[in-house]
Design goal:
By secondary structure, the protein is mostly beta strands. The protein has one helix at residues 107-111, and strands at 19-23, 38-41, 50-58, 63-67, 73-79, 81-85, 88-92, 100-103, 116-117, 129-135, 152-159.
């Protein structure tokens, strides 16, 4: 029998979509759950937390629905900080396709209402959880973004989601 690829089969471009309700108490302290923002579920070990994108919030029930789908792409504001000295940013670098993006839970980032940066360690100091990777939003997206001075860049980020382990 000849094998044939049929044009009438069902597929999903996203794979298994993973949306879960998470209580506010399990999210990083000091951040207010806001739809379209990045989220990190607190865990026992730094740098190994579950991360995703907030879809909706229910303030009455104090829960947020978070998309933990691996490889989903969302646009975020990403800080180009690389290192800290105490609570102050120390070095910065241009953001390029393929660069890792971290959920930065340091006091500096929370004060700026940002969650994502290119710094593997926060100002607390602790290791930041890997959130995903920079990708092009479209063929016209220009890289590198930013430079060796402090800046915040709007970037498309492919999240690790529930695939992070």
């Amino acid at each position: 029998m000849t094998e044939t690829v049929h044009n009438d089969y069902e597929v999903s471009s996203e794979g298994g979509v993973r949306h879960w309700e998470i209580p506010y108490a399990r999210l990083v302290a000091g951040t207010t759950p806001t739809p379209t923002n990045a989220a990190q579920v607190t865990g026992l070990l730094d740098a190994h937390q579950l991360t995703g994108t907030i879809l909706t919030v229910d303030a009455g029930a104090a829960v947020a629905v978070i998309d933990f789908t691996p490889s989903m792409v969302y646009r975020f504001d990403v800080r180009n900080v690389l290192t800290y000295v105490g609570n102050a940013e120390n070095t910065w670098g241009p953001i390029n396709i393929g660069d890792p993006v971290y959920y930065d839970d340091g006091a500096t980032m929370i004060a700026m209402w940002l969650q994502l940066s290119t710094a593997p360690a926060s100002s607390t100091p602790s290791n930041n959880a890997l959130f995903g990777y920079i990708v092009a939003a479209s063929p016209a997206d220009v890289f590198p973004k930013g430079g060796i001075v402090a800046s915040t860049q709007r970037c498309a980020v492919m999240q690790l989601g529930a695939a992070a382990a």
